[in-house]
Amino acid sequence: MLSFESRMDERKKTFKKGVDGDDARRRREDEALSLRKAKKDEQLRKKRMMVDPENKENGQENMAPAFNAPQAKQCEMAGEGLAELRTRLQVPTLSAEERLLIVTDIRKRLSRASNPPTQEAIDAGLIPLMVQYMGGADTKLQFEASWVLTNIASGDSEQTAAVVHNGAVPALAQLLSSPELETREQAAWCIGNILGDSPQLRDHALQFNLVPAMLQLIVLAEQSGADKVTALRTATWVLSNAFRGKPGPALDVVGPAIPYIAQLMHHADSEVKTDTLWSISYLCDGGEEKVDAFCQTGALQHVIQHLGHPDSKVVQPALRAVGNVAAGADRHTDLVVKSGVLTHVAACLAQTKASVRKETMWLLSNITAGTTEQIQAVLDAGLMPLIVGTGGNDCWDVRKEALWAVSNAAVGGSPAQLEAMANSGAIEFCVAACDNKTETAALVALLDGLKAFLKAGQMLENAGQENVFSRMVEEADGLTKLEALQEDANEEIYEKAVQIMTTFFDAEDAEEETQAAGAGFNFGAGTAFNFA
């Protein structure tokens, strides 16, 4: 049987070290990815267009060109399936008016709010026909055909891929230069659904020079005035999907859009502002080169100012963007701190929306994973008591991020910084959370944090001073909880708990420390936390 030391050596080869600040930031980036996946309600990847010319649902603008279909024809088609309508479309003697009528009927069916016949349309072979019609000269038919494809592309990944594999992207790219703004917008909408599906479809579509065309649409929509704000909203949303996904798009492909998004975040329309901030957040999640490209615009400080916006839908993507910059290299984290982000933290942690508080803590964890100077900036801003206090009484999602913020600061902090953290109740906070085994990674992080405190305490002891950190762990009932973790089914948690107990709390030393009294650091009274 392997000795305890041998097993610990083997585990070190398997698991990441808690003392690596860059590693801590990467782990928070992984958490950011899961946050994005869980937030489809915050930023839709795909949108179905459900506007009906005869029924303006939800107060949406009727974008379809005016067309009065013969009543008899409408009744005749009502009982037919999509395969039968496709057969009608292939009749050689079909007039342009009848063709438009049939395609409009197909579009209406696919625009139903519930259970649209998306797969039926694919199985009926309608996609190639719609692609063909988009390349024709009839602008009304182009519009209706692109609308049909928009709603098919809003389906699942296989349905979106069917649109792409039938050659729709080149035809849609051509429509982006249409003289009709509404047709451009409709083509852009379909492209947005394709871009938002997957990195693979996104990169395929971006080969067709879509980014410059989208930038032209943005300029045109802006020049057209407030009455064309829907086109600007659509173009901005499409652009956000061009940046979205991991791995991200090549910088040389999306780079021309960076100056545009640096300006569009100032737009008065909240949808334009929000989608632009999401674009920035996706860009800054793509590696140091892309973070540098954005920071060179000088717009980071303006993103940070949006943390004070009254609408949480604006604050959240701004937080994500700033957090992704802070997750970069030390120079990026420095820029975030020097740009004044810490002055906005208290207000963000006071937001009623838990997801905003959670991402604020995640942002802080990326800062405290940095240099001692960055950790000191958090302490100088008086935020550690707020991190501990909010984290100790908030929901688990927020608390988990607070544990990362505290642990990262403890692992990378100086002895004086650890003392200041302990004065703020950080040790009690970590010990109290030992009972919660909801998520292994957070428990591992807090054990790394406790180990950092205890290691600093051991240095004090070796220098002939009282090991106040060890005493505080004991007074918070830490030994009982650490002993319980030695029975944990997770091997990494078990081994970390064993290592802490054997390294810092052997029986003889524990008795001596329990009996110890006298002066030491002037620590504040313990803080009570609600971890129910």
Structure described in brief:
The chain has 532 residues and is mostly helical.
The main sheet comes to: none
- The proportion of strand residues reads under 5%
Please give the alpha-carbon distance between the first and last residues: 40 Å
Q: Architecture of the domain at 1-23 and 380-516 and 523-532 in CATH?
A: Alpha Horseshoe
Mean pLDDT: 85
CA radius of gyration is 29 Å
CATH topology of the domain at 1-23 and 380-516 and 523-532: Leucine-rich Repeat Variant
Helix segment tally: 33
Report the oligomer: single chain
Q: Give the CATH class of the domain at 1-23 and 380-516 and 523-532.
A: Mainly Alpha
Kindly state the number of beta strands: 0
Helix- and strand-based class? mainly alpha
Spans where pLDDT lies below 50 across 5 or more residues: 1-22, 26-43, 52-69, 507-526
Helix coverage percent = 55-70%
In CATH, what is the homologous superfamily of the domain at 1-23 and 380-516 and 523-532?
Answer: Leucine-rich Repeat Variant
Name the overall outline.
Answer: elongated
